């Protein structure tokens, strides 16, 4: 009857898992468990688009979002595409039953006033949190990347931070990987003089090699700890703020200030295409400003 979904997923994952970052492996393994439970014994070539359509409908009826089912079926699609190239199966039923992702909501970005208020409150209550929020707002790095910073990654003379590793929560505690989510390698990001001073003070307050040490100073802070701390700031201020919101803030403010798109993408560790897609609203605003400026030249 041909290779089953379960067999295909197992072979595909065994040969591709080492190309994935830890977080990607975790989400992929979760998707595979769902697929094996729902389709495991079914022959891949016996699957039809209508079966996937029915599955999407059932999942939505159970309260899952469309993006959830699209993410799960995307794993099956990747496995099928891999299997076709190796003559393990003949069809990719997911491609014909492809569900479009729900239209992305406009990224909710903290206002400059909200970020200033968060910094002011953190400065009074938690110097390490103040440092984290400052770095997040200035360079837009991911939570995992900021927590992966060490003393050696900070150059006060050149005013730079080198982002070269990520800290990821796992079932057993923490995983520290010498790679970033984009897998583009280390990137060097410039910072301002005030941020240099803030980081210097934070490092002077402890002897850990990590900029943000955990309870065990030989280890970095747990990602959930910083997320909880940032969230509490927002609760006190009456605004919704989280570590990734600081990334959005950095991107939108940079684009709004006229920083070239390739520079913004490089600082974020993203591709120009990703930044264009995620922050289209900021680019549209900048585009309108360009139109007005050009119109002023011929008035």
Q: Would you give an account of this structure?
A:
- The strands form two sheets. The chain has a three-stranded antiparallel sheet with strand order 1-2-5, with no helix packed on it.
- A hairpin with a 2-residue loop joins strand 3 and strand 4.
- The longest helix is centred in the N-terminal third of the chain and has 20 residues.
- It is globular and about 65 Å long.
- It has two domains: 92 residues, DNA polymerase, domain 1 (Orthogonal Bundle); 175 residues, Intergrase catalytic core (hpI Integrase, Chain A), CATH 1.10.443.10.
- The model has no long low-confidence stretch (mean pLDDT 87).
- Helix 11 runs antiparallel to helix 12.
- With 299 residues, the chain is mainly α.
- The chain is 58% helix and 7% strand.
CATH architecture of the largest domain: Orthogonal Bundle
The ordered string of helix (H) and strand (E) elements is HHHHHHHHEEEEEHHHHHH
Largest sheet: 3 strands, antiparallel
| Count of individual helical segments | 14
Taken as a percent bin, the fraction of beta residues is: 5-15%
What is the mean pLDDT? 87
Radius of gyration: 23 Å
User: Reading side by side through the largest sheet, how are the strands ordered?
Assistant: 1-2-5
- CATH homologous superfamily annotation of the largest domain: Intergrase catalytic core
- Domains (count): 2
Shape: globular
Task: Tell how many strands the DSSP assignment holds.
Answer: 5
Question: What separation lies between the terminal Cα atoms?
Answer: 73 Å
Taking pLDDT < 50 over at least 5 consecutive residues as the criterion, the unreliable ranges are none
CATH class of the largest domain equals Mainly Alpha
CATH T-level fold name of the largest domain:
hpI Integrase, Chain A
**Fraction in helix:** 55-70%
């Amino acid at each position: 009857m041909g290779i089953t979904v379960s067999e295909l997923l197992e072979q595909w994952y065994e040969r591709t898992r080492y190309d994935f970052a830890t977080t990607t492996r975790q989400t992929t393994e979760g998707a595979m468990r769902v697929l094996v439970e729902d389709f495991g014994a079914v022959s891949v070539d016996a699957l039809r688009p209508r079966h996937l359509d029915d599955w999407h409908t059932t999942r939505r009826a159970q309260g899952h979002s469309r993006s959830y089912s699209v993410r799960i079926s995307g794993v099956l699609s990747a496995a099928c595409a891999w299997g076709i190239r190796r003559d393990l199966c003949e069809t990719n039923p997911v491609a014909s039953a492809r569900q479009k992702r729900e239209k992305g909501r406009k990224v909710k970005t903290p206002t400059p006033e909200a970020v200033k208020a968060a910094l002011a409150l953190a400065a009074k209550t938690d110097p390490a949190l103040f440092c984290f929020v400052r770095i997040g707002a200035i360079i837009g790095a991911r939570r995992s990347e900021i927590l992966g910073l060490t003393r050696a990654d900070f150059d006060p003379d050149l005013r730079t931070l080198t982002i070269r590793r990520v800290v990821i929560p796992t079932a057993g505690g923490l995983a520290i990987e010498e790679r970033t989510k984009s897998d583009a390698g280390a990137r060097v990001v410039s910072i301002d003089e005030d941020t240099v001073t803030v980081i210097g003070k934070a490092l002077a307050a402890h002897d850990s090699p990590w900029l943000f040490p955990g309870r065990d100073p030989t280890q970095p802070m747990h990602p959930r700890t910083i997320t909880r701390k940032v969230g509490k700031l927002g609760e006190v201020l009456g605004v919704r703020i989280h570590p990734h919101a600081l990334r959005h803030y950095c991107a939108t403010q940079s684009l709004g200030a006229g920083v070239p798109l390739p520079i913004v993408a490089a600082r974020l560790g993203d591709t120009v295409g990703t930044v264009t897609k995620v922050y289209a609203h900021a680019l549209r605003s900048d585009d309108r400003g360009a139109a007005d400026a050009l119109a002023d030249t011929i008035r």
